[in-house]
Sequence to fold (265 residues):
Amino acid sequence: MAIMDRLSRLIRANVNDLIDGAEDPEKMLDQILRDMQSSMMTARSQVAAMIAQEKELEADLNETRQLSAEWGQKAQRAVAAGKDDLAREALRRKRDNDENARVYEQQHQIQLQTVDKLKNQLRQLEAKYQATLSQRDSLVARQRRATAQQKVAQNLTTLSPLDPSSELDRMERKIRGSEAQVAALTEMGDESFDAQFRELDYDDSIEAELQALKGGGSMALPQGTESSSDAASMEAGSVIAAGSGDDYDETGQEAASSTSPSSPS
Fold:
């Protein structure tokens, strides 16, 4: 028996858990409203049936009272006519109708109480239905808001168990690396442009020298520079000039001494 009880409890627990997981508050509220509306319709039909029964009892009661009054009048007429047997029969029937009237009266009172009770219950059910209907939108909005907050909280918890700033720092380092690569490529492109322009200038100077050579002229030398042969020629000329001056001085002196008149002895 203990095993069966545990097994039964386990089955009920699993079934209830599945039902709880499958419940949608919005759908449940709509179903509750449909159930309440169906209950109101059933209650209205029951109240209408009880009211009809109350009307029938009231009619029976009035008819019985009327019959009792008629048999009483007949009994009086029989007594007046000296017909005691007829008067006795009329009085018996009047008594039967009086007893039926008392029964109908009791049933009618009970029926009236039942109808009033059912009417109160129907009014309460209608008021509860209207309150639930008016609260349905607010309850659905609260449920949707709670579901959205739950999803946001779950997403935040599943992003990273560590500090989110570490991920931001990593992304920032990655972006800085990309920016450095772009700057390096841009700088290399600028240097290549400058080198191309310098090469163009160099080619223009080479072409100018080539045209000068073809025209029979000397190559244009940069300002402040001279060729090695010109420098050597200039240096040799200065040396020769210096040596010729010295010889001229010595011969000149000798000639002067030889041509000068001799003094008288």
